[in-house]
C-alpha cells in the first residue's frame, strides 16, 4: 500500500510574558501509515526540531471546542481579531502555550480528512493483510496442520515442557 504525507509549514506563536513569546516556525505532518496521529515539529533554532505527536481526533475536536487533558490541550480562540487555535503542551521539561492560525490548521486538517476519512483509519494500518500473510506462512511452514493439530493433542513442541 502506498503511503501519503500531508505537510504544511505554519508560523505558530509562543504565547508568554512580554519579551518571552514570539514566532516559532513549525511543520504539521500527517502520514497515512500512522493514520490516527498528527505530528508537529517546532523549529526553535536548535540542531533538531522539537517533535510532538498526538491524536488527529484531538486536533479536529480542538478546532471547534476545548478538548484534551494532560499533556495536550487544544481550544479555539481569538487574538487580535483573528481566529486561532490554542495549543497547551506540557512535558517534564516545561509547559508552552502556542497560538496557530485556525484557517491554516483547518485547511490542513481537511486535506488529511479527505485522504483518510474519520472511521477508516484502521484500514490503513494493514493489520488484516499482515495477519493473513503471517498465518499463511505459518501454515506452510508447519505442513498446514500446526497449530490446530497440536492444540487438539495437548502436546507441547518444547522438549523442556
Structure description:
With 161 residues, this protein is α+β, with helices and mostly antiparallel strands. The protein has four helices and seven strands, in the order ββββαβββααα. It has helices at residues 56-64, 102-115, 127-141, 148-153; strands at residues 5-15, 22-31, 37-42, 50-55, 72-79, 82-91, 94-101. The protein has a seven-stranded antiparallel sheet with strand order 4-3-2-1-7-6-5, with helices on both faces. α1 crosses α2. The longest helix has 15 residues, at 127-141. It is elongated. The model has no long low-confidence stretch (mean pLDDT 84).
Task: Give the key terms.
4 helices, alpha+beta, 7-stranded antiparallel β-sheet, 27% helix, 7 strands, 161 residues, single chain, elongated, 37% strand
Short description:
It is built from 4 helices and 7 strands, in the order ββββαβββααα. It has 161 residues and is an alpha+beta fold.
Topology of helices and strands:
Layout: E1 5-15, E2 22-31, E3 37-42, E4 50-55, H1 56-64, E5 72-79, E6 82-91, E7 94-101, H2 102-115, H3 127-141, H4 148-153
Antiparallel strand pairs: 1-2, 1-7, 2-3, 3-4, 5-6, 6-7
Largest sheet: 7 strands, antiparallel
The SSE string, one letter per element, is EEEEHEEEHHH
- Termini gap: 41 Å
Tell me roughly what share of residues is in helical segments: 25-40%
- Low-pLDDT parts are none
Radius of gyration, in Å, reads: 23 Å
The coarse silhouette is elongated
The helix/strand class is alpha+beta
* Proportion of residues in extended strands: 35-45%
Provide the spatial order of strands within the biggest beta sheet: 4-3-2-1-7-6-5
Q: Quick one: how many beta strands? A: 7
Mean pLDDT: 84
Give the helix tally.
Answer: 4
Amino acid at each position: 500500500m502506498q503511503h501519503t504525507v500531508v505537510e504544511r509549514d505554519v508560523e505558530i506563536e509562543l504565547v508568554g510574558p512580554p519579551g518571552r513569546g514570539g514566532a516559532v516556525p513549525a511543520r504539521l505532518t500527517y502520514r497515512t501509515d500512522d493514520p490516527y496521529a498528527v505530528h508537529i515539529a517546532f523549529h526553535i533554532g536548535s540542531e533538531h526540531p522539537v517533535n510532538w505527536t498526538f491524536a488527529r481526533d484531538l486536533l479536529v475536536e480542538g478546532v471547534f471546542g476545548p478538548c484534551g487533558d494532560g499533556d495536550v490541550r487544544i481550544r479555539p480562540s481569538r487574538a487580535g481579531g483573528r481566529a486561532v487555535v490554542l495549543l497547551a503542551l506540557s512535558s517534564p521539561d516545561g509547559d508552552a502555550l502556542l497560538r496557530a492560525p485556525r484557517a491554516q490548521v483547518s485547511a490542513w486538517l481537511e486535506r488529511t480528512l479527505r485522504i483518510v476519512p474519520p472511521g477508516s483509519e484502521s484500514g490503513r494500518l494493514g493489520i488484516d493483510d499482515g495477519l493473513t500473510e503471517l498465518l499463511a506462512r505459518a501454515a506452510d511452514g508447519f505442513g498446514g496442520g500446526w497449530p490446530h493439530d497440536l492444540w487438539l493433542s495437548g502436546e507441547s513442541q518444547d522438549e523442556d515442557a
